[in-house]
Design brief:
Elements: H1 2-32, H2 45-50, H3 53-56, H4 61-69, H5 78-91, H6 95-121, H7 124-136, H8 141-145, H9 150-169, H10 175-189, H11 198-207, H12 218-231, H13 233-252, H14 264-283, E1 292-293, H15 300-319, H16 325-338, E2 350-352, H17 357-375, H18 380-406, H19 411-421, H20 426-438, H21 442-455, H22 460-473, H23 476-489, H24 494-506, H25 510-523, H26 528-540, H27 544-557, H28 562-574, H29 578-591, H30 596-608, H31 612-625, H32 630-648
Antiparallel strand pairs: 1-2
Helix pairs in contact: 1-6, 1-7, 1-18, 4-5, 5-6, 5-9, 6-7, 6-9, 7-17, 7-18, 9-10, 10-13, 11-16, 14-15, 15-16, 16-17, 19-20, 20-21, 20-22, 21-22, 22-23, 22-24, 23-24, 24-25, 24-26, 25-26, 26-27, 26-28, 27-28, 28-29, 29-30, 30-31, 31-32
Length: 649
């Protein structure tokens, strides 16, 4: 009977938590489910996914080796690369499914946060609202709706697994229980080094809610504190190593700004202002954008006010440390988790970023939710009123996040919104220009690029985009001028060399085109497009053997490169190796099933091999896909004539 009662009590205890977890899942899905229809973003998603040959190839032994040994995009986060490779293996370049993986990770993080604080505090409703704030706050939309920010979600996932493991370890420490904490934390560091502050967060949680520093005797408390610090030594050592590797990667990638570009006093001022700006956006998340430009100057009065605000809050919570320990834990959680990205060591061009609050917001949630709960009367009526107020806040957050999510539908909507909520944002103008180029809105694209250059006339990427827009307009002279300016600013810019080479090849200047392709490859040895373009020039010079080598190098880098397969088929056709040509054309069609030119090329092979039925099918498909193609119609008519010739005889 006692066992039955115990089982019933356990069931009653677990069931509300399961229901709350299910509610969190449904609320999060309601906000984010539409990302399945979203496109990739042209800011970093290209480097991380759709133009990254290692990711495009999915899982392979070489890819895994690359993930652990390369510092691509100025970062070292091998598990993040493996995650993107897994998505590519499963979904190809279906952007919606890549987005959904992010949503799934965000949901798992929400549930893990809920579980951890339920276990540590025993307070379900407070833990529920903390998890709801985490799941639904508009500041977190950037981390979830941006495929390239998978690293935020994945590192937090492992960190929260480590936190749950620590919640099990703390009441009954043992080496067996400590190993999962260490293992999950290492996985977090291998996903993104921002979780380096995790050991400090554990020390804060030791104070509250775990109460591992509860001894009143001063000597005993000091001994306990030292023991807890020693307990974190392996974690701190991992953090130090990860920090060193990350800084090396950023330095090697040129992402670390010099003191000349950003003086120390400006960095400190920006850090203080950013702490306050994040707080403002947590309270009123109405003007959130993808990129906030780093300021040229910050008035002393603004920096002083920000510093005074941070200091005043810090002093207040420290005075409340005995009565309301959650205030000091929450506030210090917020300050500590932002330290790696607050800009003292300046990484990147941004002043701050919404994604940096992904874990920092938890600290403010702890302070606010437990602070309000401590002030609230514990009568049933007051508790119900508190829950209703919390529900109203959750609904308000859902509405705001739902709106913010939809700005991420594509690069045009994203950067138009970013320009509406920021000033002097040359990055947003540039990337909006690139998005407009891809949509064929060339006049608008040129205007955006010029606005970008008006703000920053030394942005080489904008000159390349301007060159691309002029190329598509047919103004090759203007395009060449812009590519040359880009190369003056950055002589080893591979995209500028490649694009300039394409124009030179189009103008019949094969020698100079090859020269620029070689320079592009020298700057970026994994630049598959440059190898492919070089192969096309060599093919035009009737050097098919050399051309084949270039196409094969392009395919070695990116086996899913349809154009290189098609061009390699052309090279084998010239060499009269029709079987290999056919195989590569067929592979190209698997990758680009609606390309009429490839159907024509494959049809030519079938004609040469006497397979006229197959040839007619290919030419008919080409005509259907491109009814305006006279070439495809002529080929179809010729194939039909050849097909009818024997019966006519």
């Amino acid at each position: 009977m006692d066992i039955d009662n115990q089982r019933k009590m356990t069931s009653l205890h677990i069931r509300p938590g399961l229901i709350m977890g299910l509610v969190l899942v449904c609320l999060t899905l309601a906000v984010y489910v539409h990302v399945r229809d979203f496109d990739f973003c042209n800011y970093d998603d290209d480097q991380y996914v759709y133009q990254n040959p290692w990711v495009l190839n999915g899982f392979s032994a070489q890819g895994v080796s690359w993930a652990f040994t390369n510092m691509h995009a100025s970062n070292w986060h091998p598990l993040t690369w493996l995650s993107h490779m897994a998505d590519s293996q499963l979904y190809g370049m279906n952007a919606g499914n890549h987005h959904l993986t992010n949503v799934i990770l965000h949901i798992l993080n929400t549930l893990l946060l809920f579980a951890a604080f339920c276990r540590m505090t025993g307070m379900r409703w407070q833990s529920f609202f903390l998890a709801a704030l985490f799941a639904l706050h508009p500041l977190h939309v950037e981390s979830v709706a941006w495929v390239a920010e998978r690293k935020d979600l994945l590192s937090t996932f492992f960190m929260l697994l480590a936190l749950n493991s620590y919640a099990r370890y703390a009441p009954d420490p043992s080496r067996t229980r400590y190993l999962p904490v260490l293992g999950f934390f290492i996985c977090g560091l291998l996903s993104k080094p921002m979780v380096v502050t995790f050991p400090v967060l554990l020390l804060l949680l030791d104070y509250w809610p775990l109460g591992r520093l509860s001894s009143r005797a001063t000597a005993s408390r000091k001994a306990t504190a030292l023991a807890l610090l020693a307990e974190k030594a392996p974690l701190l050592a991992c953090s130090a190593l990860s920090t060193a590797i990350s800084f090396t990667a950023q330095l090697k990638g040129g992402a670390v700004m010099s003191l000349t570009d950003a003086p120390l006093q400006l960095r400190l001022a920006n850090g203080l202002v950013s702490y306050c700006a994040y707080l403002r956006d947590m309270i009123a998340p109405f003007r959130l954008g993808l990129f906030y430009p780093f300021p040229d100057a910050i008035p002393f009065s603004v920096a002083a006010f920000a510093g005074a605000t941070v200091l005043a809050i810090t002093l207040f919570v420290l005075r409340q440390r005995n009565k309301q320990p959650w205030l000091v834990v929450g506030w210090l959680w917020y300050l500590v988790t932002l330290l790696p990205v607050i800009g003292i060591i300046k990484i990147g061009l941004q002043a701050r970023a919404d994604r940096y609050t992904y874990m920092s917001l938890v600290g403010i949630g702890i302070a606010v939710i437990w602070g309000l709960a401590s002030l609230w009367s514990m009568s049933r009526r007051s508790k119900a009123l508190g829950i209703l107020c919390g529900a109203a806040l959750v609904i308000a957050l859902m509405v705001a996040s739902y709106r913010q999510v939809h700005y991420w539908r594509n690069s045009i909507t994203l950067f138009e919104h970013t320009l509406a909520v920021t000033q002097n944002n040359y990055i947003a103008h540039n990337n909006l220009g690139l998005a407009l180029i891809n949509e064929g809105r060339l006049a608008e694209a040129i205007e955006q690029c010029r606005l970008s250059l008006k703000i920053n006339p030394r942005c080489e990427e904008t000159y390349v985009n301007l060159g691309l827009a002029f190329t598509r307009q047919g103004d090759l002279q203007q395009a060449v001028q812009n590519y040359h300016i880009a190369l003056e600013l950055k002589p080893d810019f591979p995209v500028a060399h490649n694009n300039l080479g394409m124009i030179l090849a189009q103008q019949g200047n094969a020698a100079d085109a090859i020269k620029h392709y070689n320079l592009a490859i020298k700057s970026s040895p994994d630049y598959a497009e440059a190898y492919n373009n070089m192969g096309n020039v060599l093919l035009s010079l009737n050097r098919p053997a050399e051309a084949r080598d270039q196409f094969l190098l392009a395919l070695q880098i990116n086996p899913a490169y349809a154009e290189a397969h098609n061009n390699l088929g052309n090279a084998f056709t010239i060499a009269q190796d029709f079987d290999r040509a056919q195989a590569h054309y067929q592979h190209a069609l698997q990758l680009l099933p609606n390309n009429p030119d490839i159907y024509c090329n494959l049809g030519n092979i079938y004609v040469l091999k006497g397979m006229l039925t197959e040839a007619v099918f290919c030419f008919r498909t080409a005509v259907r896909l491109n009814p305006a193609s006279d070439n495809a119609r002529r080929k179809l008519e010729r194939a039909l004539q050849l097909q009818q010739a024997p019966s006519a005889k």
